[in-house]
Amino acid sequence: VTRVFILEDHPAVRQGFRMLLEPEGIEVCGEAETLAEARAALDPAAPDLVMVDLVLGLEDGTDLVRELAHGDPPLPVLVVSMHEGSHWVRRSLEAGARGYVTKRETVDCLILAIRALAAGRSYLSPRAAEALRSEGLPIR
Amino acid sequence: MLGALLLCALLVAAGARLAHGARAPRARQGVLDLSGYDLDRQAPVRLDGEWAFHWGQLLDPAAAQSTPTGYLDLPSYWNEVRIQGHPIGGTGCATLRLRILPGPGQAPLALRVFDLSSAYRLWVNGRMVASGGRVGRSAQEETADASLRMVSLPALAGPTELVLQVSNYHVRGGGVPASLQLGRADRVLAAQDRSWGLAMLFTGALLVMGIYHLALFAFRNRDRSPLCFGIYCLLWMGSILGSDASEWVIQLFLPGLSAAALFRLSQFCFFLTIPVGYQFFLKLYPQEFAAWGLRVWQVLGGAFALLALAGPTLRVSQALEVYYALAIPVVLYAMGALFLAWLRDREGAVYMLAGFLCLGMVGINDMLNDLEVIRTAFLIHIGMFVFILFQAVALSLRFARAFHAVEDLSAELGEKNGALEEEIRERARLEREIVHLSEEERRRISHALHDGLCQLLTGARLRCSALKRKWPMGQGESRELAELSSLLEESVDQAYDLSSGLWPVDQDPRAVCASLSGLVARLSESSGVAMSFCQKTHCELCDNDPVTQLYHIAQEAIANALKHARPEHIQVTLDCLDRSTVRLTVQDDGIGRGAAQRSKGGLGLRIMAHRARMLGGELRIEDAPGHGTRVTCGVPCASQGRPSERVREAGGKGAV
Asked: Nearest residue on chain A to B459, judged by CA atoms?
């Protein structure tokens, strides 16, 4: 069973994730709304990976991405965000995220991403990959 | 006004005194006794009084000793002399003789001879010393020339005999209208220099004033009164230069100018002074001067002037009498009209009246003097000088008032400008405030949609998906859930697009390029029109906050193109031209501005232009090369960085 910790400031979205993931054999071992809550709850929860939203009210989820990715031991982080601009994707990957899924994508994407990260791989959703591609490829 | 009247009276009185002289010896019965008069110490003497007069004869000095016809009191014309009860008239010839008994003076002398009508020869003690023209017994024989002659004589050693032959067939009055003057040579010459100096002063003043007014008219031809006054001055100058008043000073410079030509010039100018002067006054005071008077005088003046140019000089001279008779009433009329203008408080009327009172009275004096009604001196040059002095004062007053008015208006305008500028600044500030508020509102709504509604809908979609997975496929509830899930997906998409359209919410606020790229991609996808975005910027992030406005300008420009121009492709370019300007270009290949302008609307353009102005930039909308429309907006940029060039292609049909 993969243990997932969710950092997400919208209760409705957290609830949605939980309802979606648990039947798929993914255990939601903890949730937090703010960075402080997450920092306090992460150790006891001992997750296999952490799902992080980037905009948490006035806080920036990227800070936690950076902390977890460079922690000891490092924890795989999957960014799940409403933002689809290449800037956000690049910033997250630079901070150390192992995966990026936008919230508008299908639930299958999310489950694929969690499984990939749990297996030690990285995962970029199609929209995130497209954002990076269009930004990074000079055509002329 | 009183001063002007006083000045006139003084002028005329001085003229009269000048004409008669004070306590000067006078000739009696052809003899002038100067035994009590020291020419060395006293002023030059006028050889006035009774000269022996031989009418109808041109006698040599010896023959002139015979018994005369009578005695002629000089200076005068002989026109009214009666022989056998009848006046002899102006034309004819005569010999005049004067015996001078000398005084104690020993210095060399000079005899001044001027203005004899019309030709003469002069002998002193049997020796011919001067002549003017050629005397004769008919107009054909005679050549008129009354030019000034200065005859040098030794001191009178004993009784001296002057014999003067005079003939006149060219002008109205015959005889010796001006005094012959005898005196110490240096004094006579000095007096002549003074006269000519004054004549040059008067004519020079007229010339300057005339040219000044003509130039004034040339630079400002709305008002014709300076033109009239300029011509008026020049006419008087011409008249005075050719008349006795200036003692023919012009002959010093143009010695070849004949007496007849001078006479014609003088009369031509003189005849035109009244119509031109009348027109001048009419322009200034149309309420006081009758317009029909001008028409009458234009005809009269023109006819007289033509006569002066082409008629026989005798006729011209005789016409003067008629002209004087017509001129005196019009001079009095002009005085009255100017007086009325003064009473009605017309601008400058007081100076004009004062000046013209002098000129008019002096003019009447001269005319009456010329007609021998009174005996004074010719003063028109002085009168005219006084008149233009008053005109100069009036002119100064007008200019001073004009300058004051301009200064006052400028000050008032300055104040109004200041207030207006302040109002414009305030309006601009309010506009910025309003746009800022509107931007803030858009940003707030956009974020509320993005971070609120989108998240809630996402939560609902996730839960719906979870439920859908629980139900086996094919059941009624499962289909319901699938439809619900798809509905929620669509809602999320719409809310997301809505929030992105209001504000580039998905991007870092400084990443205008990324935002534009996203905008182009979204609009291309939603419209189905191919669009491409090209970026030639130097910086990864744009540090110019106002550049965010470019996003909205691009949004509006693309929307306009899609709405009006029916394009197949839209190219959006963001270009850092010279590291100090960022230029946004939106170019379409649609139907062009001409056709697109026929569509209703236009608010979008004004808003774009306003946004550009707020950024300190300029919006230009022009025809694109080939066809279509190009919208460019350049705004100042302060950031510097490494150049980077990227080109992105958005989807849509026909995208490369």
From this structure: A13
The mean per-residue pLDDT over the stretch B434-455 comes to 83
To the nearest whole Å, the CA of B507 is away from the closest chain A CA by: 6
State residue B625's pLDDT score: 80
Question: Bigger pLDDT: B78 or B442?
Answer: B78
Nearest to B639 by CA among B548, B574, B545, B554: B545
Give the model's pLDDT for residue B430.
Answer: 86
**Is the confidence at residue B32, as pLDDT, over 70?**
yes
Q: Does B455 touch chain A (CB under 8 A)?
A: yes
Type and span of the H or E element at A129: helix A126-136
**Contact criterion met (CB below 8 Å) for B71 and B99:** no
* Count of helix runs (H) and strand runs (E) in chain A: 6, 8
B172 CB burial (10 A radius; 0-12, 13-18, 19+): buried
Q: Which tens digit of pLDDT belongs to each residue from B582-630? A: 888 999 988 877 765 655 545 567 778 877 877 778 888 888 887 888 9
Structural contact between residues B65 and B98, judged by C-beta atoms closer than 8 angstroms = no
Query: ipTM exceeding 0.85?
Result: yes
Nearest by Cα to B69 from B30, B121, B101: B30
CB contacts of B450 in chain A (<8 Å) are 82
Burial class of residue A83 in the structure, from the number of CB atoms within 10 Å of its CB (0-12 exposed, 13-18 middle, 19+ buried): buried
Is B347's Cβ below 8 Å from some Cβ in A?
Answer: no
Between strands B49-55 and B45-46, the pairing is unpaired
A135, B517: Cβ pair inside 8 Å?
yes
Residue B161 has pLDDT above 90, yes or no: yes
B251: closest CA among B139, B142, B132?
B132
**Secondary structure class of B543 (helix, strand, coil):** coil
